[in-house]
Request: fold
Amino acid sequence: MTPELLQTLRSILGESGLITGADVSARATSFRNPAPMVAAAIARPSDTAQLAAVMKACHGAGQAVITHGGMTGLVDGVRAASDQLAVSLERMNRIESIDTVQRVAIAQAGVTLQAFQEAVQAQGLLFPLDLGARGTATLGGNASTNAGGNRVIRYGMMRDMVLGLEAVLADGTVVTSLNTLIKNNTGYDLKQLFIGAEGTLGIITRLSLRLREQPRSQQVAFVAIPDFDSVMATLRAVDRGLGGMLSAFEVMWNAHYRLITTPPATNRAPVSVDSPFVALIECMGGDPAVDGPRFEAVLGEALEAGHLSDAVIAKSDSEAQAFWALRDDVGQARRHGPGIGFDVSLPNVKMGAYIDEVRASILGRWPDGHFFSYGHLGDGNLHLVACVGSDEPEARADVSRRVYEPLAALGGSISAEHGIGRQKKAYLDISRSATEIALMQLLKRSLDPRGLLNPGLIFDPDPA
Ligand SMILES: Cc1cc2nc3c(=O)[nH]c(=O)nc-3n(C[C@H](O)[C@H](O)[C@H](O)COP(=O)(O)OP(=O)(O)OC[C@H]3O[C@@H](n4cnc5c(N)ncnc54)[C@H](O)[C@@H]3O)c2cc1C
Reply:
């Protein structure tokens, strides 16, 4: 970065709005990577106008920028090079309004998911997006990655919760499209350009978000399931029987369940550790007096039909939390060495055979390795972790090929919710056609002709 640009940025942002030198390396590269951060500087705009001025100056100077939200993304999207400017939304963390009648809120992009959830809850409403990194991840990051999380089966992904947004384009143009209507078919739905675009088409600064009514009852059960066909039968039975109240259906294959319920893991196993499959089933409703008995009846029918071999219903909030803690305990594989993780998507009826094929392929190649699978089965989304003694590029490429290649024939996707970033771009053509990728690149060139926003994410920069 030129000294002139640095000076211009300082004059736009003020001393506290620009971080340089040792103060950059005092930060961690990301939530999961403690290595010192690398960047030419970190810009910390306090509002949209400041960010627009920063981008205008960067555009004039041909300066590349990498956008930072909470830096909890899992596909290596926030790592900057030493000549790139990091733009952090951390000072744009104000909830501007919560309209409890229209059930819409407007917030700046740097608000953390948890702060937003809590503010909305205090008003008696619900913002349904929820994921393990809630305390650090930001609304802007959630939108840029189109985050999914735990309750997609009921409320959809972040895309389904964003009514409108404001973004700063690569040249500093501000597009304010803070729609607050549920229905608005007036031409192109511009917000969709930025949702899931991983910061490559614009920097999201503000969002209008749809809120829901707080559920008045929550039931959680942990069940044992004898085989994969019964997993599918259970999903259909509970979805049908609960009449729209099903809010989570999280499945674990036996190796993962055993991993998280045996020492050094401290979780207690609610059902037998020999169960071929287990699932956390949650239902949220509006009438505690009838929802509990209905939940019990639906699970009872599944037991009678032989879809379930055991079922334990949480009798208290703390027991429900303990069941969810089992689901959230996703780091145990590390005790078997470095893990290579995946978040794939495929039609759920095909998951049983797919996991058997991938497991056989990986453990055939690395007989001493370990393979774990679990996920948001109700959404067709699985998380896979392979521990093969190394996560260096060669091992990662070999494992990735074994995980991704069968997906093409199954109509699956190499990323259900974490995105492509730098980590998966070599495999993008497994899930997207050449024509689709060419259209994405055309959009990128149109909105960011100098290739300044998050260059190298999703696909390689355009050599032109
Ligand atoms: C423990 C843990 C659990 C997780 N669980 C889930 C889960 O269940 N479901 C799921 O979908 N994801 C999950 N994630 C990953 C998920 O993508 C992030 O947690 C979250 O959505 C990213 O938000 P962030 O603010 O941290 O974004 P960052 O990591 O800062 O950024 C992510 C990407 O978006 C870009 N970006 C960030 N802010 C903006 C902005 N304002 N405008 C434009 N671009 C921007 C960045 O440049 C980067 O490319 C999990 C991560 C962790 C660590």
Notes: The chain has four domains: 3-88, 95-213, 217-328, 332-418. The pocket of flavin-adenine dinucleotide is lined by residues 31, 66-74, 77-78, 89, 109, 131-133, 137-138, 140-142, 144-145, 147-149, 198-199, 203-204, 417-418, 454, 457 (CB under 6 Å). The mean pLDDT is 96.
